[in-house]
Each structure stands twice: as C-alpha cells, then as structure tokens.
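name: query_chain
kind: protein
chains: 1
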Amino acid sequence: MAQFTGFGPKALPFFEALKFHQSKAWFDENRALYESDVLEPMVALVDDLTAAFAKRKVPLRGNGKRAVFRLNRDVRFSKDKSPYKTHAGAVLTRSGDKKDPGLLYIHIDP
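structure:
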C-alpha cells in the first residue's frame, strides 16, 4: 500500500488538457500520466483515510481500487457525448461499498 504524498504536479494540468482533448487516442497517449499523477495518489488517499478513520473509530472505509470512480462517462442518455470526466472522485462509506448511504465524497478538479 502506497502512502499518500499528494497528487502529482501534472494532475490538474492533465484535467485542463482533457477538457480540450476528449478522445480515446489522446487519453491512451496520456494514460501513464493519469495513472501516476491522479489514480495512484487517489487510491493511496482512500487507503490512508480508511486507516486513519479506523484508528479513530470513525465508521467510514473504502477499498482504494474500488472506491475511486472511473474516468469514463456514461454518455448513453446524455446530450454531452464527451467520453471522459474532467475530475476525479472517490467515496468512503460505512460498509466500503459505493452504494451505501452515509458517505464522504472526495473530489479534485482544476
């Protein structure tokens, strides 16, 4: 388990660029940047918060890999067909399941 040391220096510029480059080709070229500067730090943040809350007996937890929302948007019923979100989010809940009520939502965007 990696320790959260902050988001990478290119995390917010990545989302700024993604606003203009809503294509799979661009994302595939920048996937490594997304994973290193956004996804891995978000997973580490969720894991660290879960450990800190457990230590203080706060009933919120999350599995780093499952608590982070996917970057792809569901565009089936949307007028905006942009395939990617321009932010990252994750949740901590009482059970650790995203669908459980009583949650803490974590969100970053430029």
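note: The helical segments are 11-20, 24-55, 64-67.
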